[in-house]
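Input C-alpha cells:
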C-alpha cells in the first residue's frame, strides 16, 4: 500500500468517525431527555423541559430529512447541541431570577420566546404544530419548534446581556 493510499484511508476513517460522533451527540441528548420524561419520579417541571427537548429534536430530525436530505449529521449535531445550550441558558436565567420581581421573569421569558420565534430554520407553514408550545400559556417552554437553535441561542444571549446591563443586573 502506498503512502498516498494509506493517507486517504486514514482520512476517510476520520470523516466516518466524525459523522458517528455527531449522531452520537444528538442521540445522547435525545436519550437523556427521554429517560427523564419516562422516569415516573422526575419532577413535573423537569419533565416539561425534557418533553420540549424531545419534541424539538424529533421535529428537527423529521424536517431535516424532508427539506434538507443532503445535510450532514454534523448539522443535526450542532442544532441539537445549540438547543440544549438554549434550554440550559434559559433554565439558568430563570433560576437566577427566582428572587427578583416578577417583571424580570416575564421579560426573560419574552426574550427567549422572541429569540426562538424570530429565528426559524425551515419556515414551516404548519403554525399549529410549530407554535404548539409557544402559544401554550401553561408551558414553561414557550418556544417555536421551527427554530434555528444556533442563531436563537446567540440572540437570547445577546438580548439577555443587553437587558441586564440596562437594568443594572449582575452578569453571571
Amino acid at each position: 500500500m502506498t503512502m498516498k493510499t494509506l493517507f486517504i484511508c486514514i482520512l476517510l476513517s476520520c470523516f466516518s468517525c466524525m459523522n458517528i460522533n455527531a449522531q452520537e451527540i444528538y442521540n445522547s441528548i435525545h436519550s437523556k431527555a427521554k429517560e427523564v420524561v419516562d422516569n415516573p419520579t422526575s419532577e413535573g417541571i423537569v419533565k416539561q423541559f425534557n418533553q420540549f427537548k424531545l419534541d424539538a429534536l424529533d421535529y428537527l430530525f423529521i424536517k431535516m430529512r424532508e427539506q434538507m436530505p443532503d445535510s450532514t449529521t454534523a448539522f443535526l449535531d450542532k442544532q441539537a447541541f445549540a438547543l440544549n445550550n438554549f434550554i440550559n441558558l434559559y433554565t439558568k436565567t430563570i433560576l437566577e431570577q427566582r428572587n427578583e420581581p416578577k417583571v424580570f421573569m416575564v421579560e426573560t421569558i419574552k426574550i427567549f420566546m422572541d429569540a426562538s420565534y424570530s429565528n426559524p430554520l425551515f419556515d414551516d407553514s404548519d403554525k399549529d404544530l410549530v407554535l404548539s408550545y409557544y402559544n401554550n400559556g401553561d408551558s414553561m417552554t414557550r418556544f417555536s419548534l421551527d427554530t434555528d437553535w444556533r442563531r436563537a441561542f446567540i440572540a437570547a444571549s445577546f438580548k439577555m446581556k443587553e437587558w441586564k446591563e440596562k437594568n443594572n443586573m449582575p452578569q453571571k
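Residues 3-20 have pLDDT under 50 and may be disordered. The chain is about 70% helix and 0% strand.
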